[in-house]
Amino acid sequence: NQPLRHTLVASSNSNNNEDDDPHDLIQRFVEPQSIKFESALSEICECGRKLSCWVWFTLPTPPFCDPTTGRELGSRMNRRYALRSEAQVRAYL
Hints:
The chain has helices at residues 4-12, 25-47, 55-58, 76-81, 86-92. The protein is mostly helical and 93 residues long. Helix 1 (4-12) crosses helix 2 (25-47). It is flat and about 40 Å long. The two termini are 18 Å apart.
């Protein structure tokens, strides 16, 4: 068996249709993670802290919403990487 990370990165290099990735996880998460993983790990190991912008696609969050209206108020990055449903969360995990 191939590690999941390898499998998803490999599948991101093929011509997938929307049915293969209905939550856009490959483009939103797998591709950025594969690009930034080594530098993010280096930041933590060598500097002891996060220095660049990679946490959005590494530890996704729910969207930031106004509690009275439910309207999304988050930053552009929060809106891009937010997981909005249980199905998206399960697919991400």
